[in-house]
Amino acid sequence: MVAEEVRRRGHEANLVRIKHVKRPGFLKAARMSIKQLEDVELNNVEADLDMSSADMVVIGGPIFAGNVNPFTRTFLTRAKGLEGKPAGIFICCSSQPDDTIEYIEMLTKMANDRGLQVKGSLVGSTKVKDQYAQLSKAFVEELLTLDT
Ligand SMILES: Cc1cc2nc3c(=O)[nH]c(=O)nc-3n(C[C@H](O)[C@H](O)[C@H](O)COP(=O)(O)O)c2cc1C
After folding, report:
1. Tell me: the pLDDT tens digits for 77-88?
2. Where are the beta strands (DSSP E) in 9-139?
3. How buried is 119 (Cβ within 10 angstroms: 0-12 exposed, 13-18 middle, 19+ buried)?
4. CA of 81 relative to ligand 1 center, distance in Å
């Protein structure tokens, strides 16, 4: 939805899916996430990880067991060309949006540590599924009006 909204506003959006090699079951996913693994195997090609030509990077993924999932973590660890780039982050979760501040802070810190300059965030909570379109619009608007 975020990529669609970026395109709707006349910009190019390159959507890169972070691909796991083998989808873990619930317990394994929780365990991997609690361990805060950031070097799991991904099925992406090298080019997927190269953000050098992007003007902005938007990165996110689901929260598992109170932590940013290991696939998003790994992507952030391996991605190239993040240094100094404006960024947006998003999380997908099932908590009430008001209870997600620590998740957002966690991902913001990880992104900032990798050299990204986080300018906005989005909480995609299943509790507010009916608001995804509206939230995506507001998020993209915030990111695209940064320097104007
Ligand atoms: C192993 C596992 C752990 C999860 N832990 C959390 C959690 O700690 N907090 C939370 O808000 N959501 C948690 N979730 C919900 C996911 O974030 C949610 O499933 C994900 O955002 C995708 O939504 P969907 O299941 O509707 O596709 C967990 C889901 C899984 C599979």
Report:
1. 999 999 999 999
2. 57-64, 67-68, 86-93, 117-125
3. middle
4. 29
Provide the residue count of the chain.
Answer: 148
Q: In the chain, what are the domain boundaries?
A: 2-142
Tell whether pTM > 0.70: yes
- For residue 114, the CA-to-ligand 1 centroid distance in Å is 25
If you measure from the C-alpha of residue 120 to the centroid of ligand 1, how many angstroms do you get, rounded to a whole number? 22
Q: What token pair was written down for 49?
A: 């990880």
What does the pLDDT look like over 29-56, one tens digit per residue?
999 999 999 999 999 999 999 999 999 9
Contacts (Cβ under 8 Å, ≥6 apart) of 37:
70, 73, 74
By the 8 A CB rule, do 40 and 74 touch?
A: yes
Q: Is 95 in the pocket of ligand 1 (CB under 6 A)?
A: yes
**CATH entry, 2-142, from 2.40.50.100, 2.60.40.10, 3.40.50.360, 3.40.50.2000:** 3.40.50.360
